Amino acid sequence: MNLRSTLALLLPASIFVSLISSCGSNMITDPADIIFPDSNVSYQNHVQPLLTLSCAYSGCHNDETAAANLRLTNYFALFQHAGLIVPLKPDNSTLIQTLEGTLPHRATYYQTATDAQKKGMRLWVKEGAKNN
Question: pTM of the full predicted structure?
């Protein structure tokens, strides 16, 4: 095998390895790392990552198990249950009530969410629960 052939094989492999290793470097895997802003809460950057890591996993509210027939895996699933999210009205949204501990829940998720995350979720609903 000559140098040109070797480089032709190694270059794509090294690009692939660097792409794979860089993919996970910005991935949040701990709900505590999700920081909500003071305004303009993003569904894609804040709400869904928090729900995915804290609620929408196997045995709880993912697509397969859907505890209480409730899926929290995507924006549209949040609106399949009437009253779960009431845009502009966090006090009327059962997700916010559950998160803040005013409604009962079998798991103790609301105890693991930070006050800032609870405030951020409330703010997202208050801002209209946008799919942004």
Answer: 0.76
